[in-house]
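ok new one. same drill as before - structure tokens go in, u give me an amino acid for every spot. 103 of them this time. try not to just spam alanines like last time pls lmao
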């Protein structure tokens, strides 16, 4: 489940990305529902700032070494959608149906 809350100030600059903050509730379903019931306002949550560039994800920057490495798409920018059959007859729910269609 995801809950998003947004607001905009009257004085905005269309050339500056909006500041995005992120808070997360963890635990079992019951624990999360209890945490939601305990929220009294924005100050009740532990907010983390998100990156400020235009195309950044709405999540905080991870601190581990893994996330400081380049993305695979940065190293090999060419991408392909993979094998596309463009028809459904080569696909079957079971082997017998597939063999019958191929014959």
């Amino acid at each position: 489940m995801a809950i998003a809350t947004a607001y905009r100030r009257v004085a905005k600059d269309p050339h500056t990305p909006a500041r995005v903050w992120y808070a997360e509730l963890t635990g079992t379903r019951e624990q999360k529902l209890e945490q939601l019931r305990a929220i009294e306002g924005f100050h009740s949550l532990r907010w983390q700032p998100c990156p400020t560039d235009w195309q950044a994800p709405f999540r905080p920057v991870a601190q581990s070494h893994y996330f400081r490495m380049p993305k695979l798409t940065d190293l090999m920018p060419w991408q392909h959608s993979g094998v596309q059959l463009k028809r459904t007859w080569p696909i079957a729910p079971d082997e017998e149906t597939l063999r019958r269609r191929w014959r």
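The first strand starts at residue 21 and ends at 22. and btw The mean pLDDT is 86.
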